[in-house]
Structures are given as structure tokens and as C-alpha cells.
What we know:
Layout: H1 5-12, H2 20-26, E1 31-35, E2 38-41, E3 46-49, H3 52-55, H4 64-76, H5 89-101, E4 108-112, H6 115-132, E5 140-144, H7 153-158, H8 162-165, E6 175-178, H9 183-186, H10 193-211, E7 216-221, H11 237-247, E8 251-255, H12 269-272, E9 279-282, E10 294-298, H13 300-308, H14 310-313, H15 326-341, H16 344-365, E11 369-375, E12 378-383, H17 396-407, E13 410-411, E14 413-415, E15 418-421, H18 429-450
Parallel strand pairs: 3-13, 5-6, 5-7, 7-8, 8-9
Antiparallel strand pairs: 1-2, 2-3, 4-10, 9-10, 11-12, 12-15, 14-15
Helix pairs in contact: 4-15, 5-15, 6-13, 10-11, 16-18, 17-18
The structure holds pyridoxal-5'-phosphate.
Amino acid sequence: xxxxxxxxxxxxxxxxxxxxxxxxxxxxxxxxxxxxxxxxxxxxxxxxxxxxxxxxxxxxxxxxxxxxxxxxxxxxxxxxxxxxxxxxxxxxxxxxxxxxxxxxxxxxxxxxxxxxxxxxxxxxxxxxxxxxxxxxxxxxxxxxxxxxxxxxxxxxxxxxxxxxxxxxxxxxxxxxxxxxxxxxxxxxxxxxxxxxxxxxxxxxxxxxxxxxxxxxxxxxxxxxxxxxxxxxxxxxxxxxxxxxxxxxxxxxxxxxxxxxxxxxxxxxxxxxxxxxxxxxxxxxxxxxxxxxxxxxxxxxxxxxxxxxxxxxxxxxxxxxxxxxxxxxxxxxxxxxxxxxxxxxxxxxxxxxxxxxxxxxxxxxxxxxxxxxxxxxxxxxxxxxxxxxxxxxxxxxxxxxxxxxxxxxxxxxxxxxxxxxxxxxxxxxxxxxxxxxxxxxxxxxxxxxxxx
Length: 451
Ligand code: PLP
């Protein structure tokens, strides 16, 4: 119907990550409400939200405590700024809380609104720090192919995915990409996982040597890559990478936008992999996405030159209107309290086991699945178009799976031929079983058509 929400969405709403033809062809899914791990569309159809929105609604939908925290803060002080010396209680409390629960000793928390903005802030801080230290040539940042760090100009440059660069004239100068630690795809014949991890570190070392160690400021990575396809690094990877960085006085930035707040079975992905970041970026599950908020945590090594030397180069000229927004900060504090009180990090570790076991059994049963991977409550099925009976373009099998999953009431996400799962931290046995049952039905459909 011409006046339906779907028609008006197509007519007026320019979406991220699609084009007009696809938008028209697939048609919008209009979600109306949510409760717990489920959402309902405008036809009343129920779905299990197996991606937590965008890897982010940790405490699930309809959490009244967050509604109350936001409402009370809206009534008391709906907005105040945090430029220069202005402040307010929720921002102070949240900064203190984040420093106190950080995986390694951190000095300061700096607030922004999105993961992209937070990573852009990191790039600017790194540049500013190098200038403050009197090392203006030490500004390059090394990221990884298939890493995802956002879409603003600098963070899209850090992102290592072609469609975030293509036709945008990105990456900007001084941002480089090294080997993606995905053993299943990148590992060579006869190479063990450990040898592959060593090769990744050797590639990084060679890149630093080729560029000149005095020109490289930092390395950035997600503990587990999310949007690049749920890439769990091989054993020993992070130790070997950190050993290389230590040799050359290069800072380590952990992008915990997805991993933070329990996703990998510990509060931080850095704990799961024994990563010791100098800078840590968090967003998404910090508020369960009930309000946009992100934070950059800086240790003394990263922070001190920015402040102590800034007299020479002026005031820190960076900051956004919404930084440390009181409503977002109040929601984050309540959300973190819920995660702590309900033991949701331990629940993620616990429920991750049947989720991964269920997906693994399906991967073994269905020929079209190449690999199951995951850790904690984040996992993926890798569809292998090479095993399909028909010739399939890259991503076509993944898209077919996505459509079948939606039909069977499961919202996951296909990243090319990778199907990503990242359900809310509150999930129970029944929820896991519902996801697995839906995935099995979808795999049957897709196998019947293409297997
Ligand atoms: N970093 C990581 C690891 C992410 O997964 C994302 C978003 O998916 C971002 C950064 C960018 O965050 P945002 O979409 O809030 O800008």
C-alpha cells in the first residue's frame, strides 16, 4: 500500500548499508517493539534477536530499570555540557566507574557518542600526543584487514573492509592494514594455528620495519573481530603481537566496542586474551544501546603527554556537544549495575557453550557450512559457496541464509557468507534452543535449494 510504513520507508528513508534497488527488492522489516530477547514486527511476527540489535542490547529489550534511570535523569537534568571545567554527577560517576572496572590500570575516561567518534578521537589523541612529545613523525597507525572500527573519516580508514573505503577516497594517509588473524581463511596448507599466529606477528614486525619504527604511533584491534566476520584470533596471537609492539614503543588500542561488557565471557575481551591496552574504546553494550554513548579510556602512558605537554601546543581542541550526556551516563551506570547484579558476564560464558555446541553440531551436519567459530556469547557460521551445487557469487549463500533465518523467526546478520550470532547476555537455555532450532530450519531450506 502506498501509505504503508514500508512504502514510506522506501520513499523517504536513506538507510545505511544498502542501495535503492536492494531496499525495494528485499523490502524493509519494520520492528515495533521488543521484550527480553525477542522483537516483533508490524505484522505481529515474533523474532529472536540473535544479534542483539547491532551487537549491543546486552540486557535485552524492555528493561524497565533503564527506562526509569533515563526518565529520572531527563526530569532532573536532561542535558548539560562537559567542555572545559563544566561537569555533572552522572559523567563523573561513570568516568570513575569505568576507570575502576577497566581490565588494566587506566587514568581517564573521555566521552563521545558512537564507536566511530570514539575511534576518531583516538586517532586525534595519538596525533596530538606525538606532537606533544616532540615526535611529529611518529603518527602512523596500524590496523588489520577486516577490522571494523567505524565509518567517520579516520575510523573508516582504520576499518579494513573494502566497501568502507571504496569511492570514499579512503583510507587517509598514515593508516595501514596488516594480516587478518583468521586461520580458516588465511592459514596456509600444513601451517599450525600457532605458526599462523607467529606469521601474523612477523608480518606486523616487517611492516613496522619497512615503515620505520619511529613513524608508527599505535596498533589498533578488536580482541575478537566483529563486523569483519567474528574472527577469533588463533592461540597466542595477542601475546605475539604485543611482544612486537613492546619492541618499538608502539601503543596498543583495544577496540572493545563489541567485546566489552561480557561478550567474550569476561567483562572485557582484553581479559579473555590477556591484552594490556594503553587505550580502550567502549560503546554499544555500555548502555545496551538504550542511549548512544561511547568512551575512550587512557592509561597514564597515553594520557600524560596529552596533558603535561599541552601547554606547549595549546588546549585540547576536541569535544562534542553530547559528550558524557547525563541521560546516557545515567543509563550506562544503571546498565552496568544490572550486568553486575544479575551476573550477566557469567551467564554469557555459561550460555555461550550450548550456543556454540549447537551451532557446531549443525556445521558438522550441513555440508554447506565451512566453519563454526566463536567464544563466549559471540559466534559465526561460515557458509562455503564452494560446496554449493550452483555457482554462487560471494555473499549470495549468506544472503539466502539470512532470508531463511528471518522466515523462521531468527534475526542474525550475514556479513558476506558469514552468519554472525551475538544474542543478548540475558539469554537462557530456552532462548539458545530457539536460535538453534531456527538455524537448523534455515539450513535445511538453504541446503535444499543449493546443497
Ligand atoms: N568499533 C567496533 C568494534 C564496532 O563493532 C563498531 C560498530 O559496529 C564501531 C567501532 C563503530 O561504532 P558506531 O557504529 O557506534 O559508530
